[in-house]
Amino acid sequence: MERLAIIGAGNLGVAIAQGIIKAGLMKPEQLTLTRRSLDKLDSIRTAGFSVTTNNSEAVQQASLIMICVQPKQTLAVVNEISPAFQEGKHVLISTVTGISTEEIASQLGGKQIPIIRAMPNTAIAIAASMTCICSHQASPQHVSAVIRLFDGLGKTLIVEERLMKASTVLAASGIAFFMRFLRASTQGGIQLGFDAEDAQAIAVQTAKGAALLLQEHGLHPEMEIDRVTTPEGCTIAGLNEMEHQGLSSAIIKGLVASFEKINNIRK
After folding, report:
1. Is domain 4-159 classified as CATH 3.40.50.720?
2. Which of 94, 83, 81, 100 is nearest to 120 (CA)?
3. Contact 229/235 with Cβ under 8 angstroms?
4. Burial of 109 (0-12, 13-18, 19+ CB in 10 A)
5. What is the pTM (predicted TM-score) of this model?
6. Confidence class of residue 1 from pLDDT cuts 50, 70 and 90?
7. Element (H, E) at 110
8. pLDDT tens-digit profile of 128-145?
9. Are 80 and 107 in contact (CB under 8 A)?
10. What dihedral do alpha carbons 46, 173, 200, 40 form, nearest 10°?
11. CATH superfamily, with its number, for domain 168-262
12. CB 53: neighbour CB atoms within 10 A?
């Protein structure tokens, strides 16, 4: 992994590049980012990253190739760069939603290239991602190397490929879902009398504390909830009202709707 090429440096690709540098895993000059419009990568270029519109050239110069394009573009892009792949040199990582390793392998002209699907989220930019991965034709050494990379950018979990779509919903889309909850909490705090900045600070730190409690204690969320609720107290009153309004049901339905959309994401 002396050099990494990120093919399709949109929001996620740039976040990954920033996270890698922030975590000290590589230096900017070890990364090449590609995009059709280079003007959108001006800040990246200024920071010392190599940028280009030539995907094949980027592949030739790297050993680890990360595909971060849109689902509908993926197979065409893989087919475009397949001549540049060399067996024994390259490892291909796909962060693309809904495209299987078998589909990617079918565009490589019969070359035996290790393929690893990884589903991080945008918190990778601050080394706080939750990344799920699965592999195809990859040795334990290849998988371990990719796990080390993503472990340096947050937490990593190996899953079966059939769960990659669910991983997308829970981890990648999940960032937006939690952001919406934090936005609502902030708005509620404003209505209760706080100014917007203070309300958001309280909501964010409280959410961080809740997540860390589960990580540290390893308990079911309801057990931590029981620590906060008291008979006839304000916490249980608020929780019950939220449930009456369908909080849990709405979250579950949202996750399921997002999951169902993945099946048609290329249409």
Report:
1. yes
2. 94
3. yes
4. exposed
5. 0.87
6. low
7. none
8. 999 999 999 899 999 999
9. no
10. 20
11. ProC C-terminal domain-like (1.10.3730.10)
12. 12
